[in-house]
Amino acid sequence: MSLKDRNEKEMYGEEQYRKIESHLLLDNRPSEYLEKVGETEEFNHFPFDLLKRMKKTEQSPKYHPEGNVWIHTMMVVDEAAKRREQSQNPQVFMWAALLHDIGKPSVTRFRNGKITSYNHDREGAELAREFLLVFTEDEAFIDAVCGLVRYHMQILFVTKGTARAQLKEMKRSVDIREAALLGLCDRLGRAGVDIEKEKESVMAFLQVCGVPGKDFDFI
Q1: Does domain 3-215 have CATH number 1.10.3210?
Q2: Where along the chain do its domains lie?
Q3: What does pTM read for this prediction?
Q4: Per its UniProt record, what SUPFAM superfamilies does this chain match (predicted)?
Q5: How far apart are CA 184 and CA 86, in angstroms?
């Protein structure tokens, strides 16, 4: 590939990144644009292929009856779009929603008759950073997005009291309100969910974190 072709390709990637961000921040249903762009040639190449891999990554039907990781992610992005104005930083929040499960394709396995994706939060934080570094050098932005990706599973771990709960580390790394907001969207971005039950889970998470859930209008 010539230098000219490489530069044009990089410019196109940058343009696509900005278009995606615009739709994440402005659309009522960002998934509609993402579904279209996800079928383009650009999504066959790095770093957008990190997103396209989600289309071939299945999930446990017990927890994700809606289907693969991409379907779930599109649902989460649309849920996040409903609540982005409640975020302290909608740009960070919406990118975190899109990238929150970017680690699943790398770690998903079929074990003992079950589909698992252990440590996809840790893997996802690393891949989200790799993705974003292609387009921006804004370290504060990248750290904020990757922090939410890294700790997006903590609502489950903390409320269940599992060994994977990392309350102190999470509090040092992310804003609890933002983590709760993303966690709510993650839990609602599935088929057949009990909305009130999921809200109760988020309230329980906030309570354990020592944060008054009554102060948060997204609950």
Answers
A1: yes
A2: 3-215
A3: 0.92
A4: HD-domain/PDEase-like
A5: 12
